[in-house]
Design a protein that fits this description.
5 helices; single chain; alpha/beta; 6 strands; six-stranded parallel β-sheet
Length: 171
Amino acid sequence: MNLRRVAHFYFLKKELKFHEVPRKVVNLSNARDIGILFDASDTDRTAIVNTFADSLRKERKKVVLLGFYNFPKPAINFNFPYFNRKSLNWHFEPHGVLVEEFIARKFDILINAYIEETLPLEYVSAFSQASFRVGHYDKQKTYAYDFMIDLKGENDLRKLMEQVRYYIEMV
């Protein structure tokens, strides 16, 4: 474990002691505002998330995306808000107006649409004011998600999105 990662978890744990948000389970039919966090570094995964977001919009849900572009240079042709490596401090904590607005927004459901560990996105999820946070199963990440989906080793974003829809319709 490198020093930056150790520092990330040290400061995260320290800040979470003073962070409390009332959480409750919200199903898809009762949700109006839905936030989606995702890794925008890969075009195929971004397309999957955009398709999923469009399907929610067709159901008259207000969907707000926030992508993390894991490169220092600005992205070209993104049609959604994002932040990149330049928005991170030395221990992977994201900063900036877009990140702060997204964290402060009171989504009914926050969907974490990524599978690999992505510390900046997990940070945003951990401090989000969302009522119900859904993400990929990782027993070490209970601070970031209220409901986790275990893909049983099948690390496929499309499968995660299918499972997210299935479970948020069911709860």
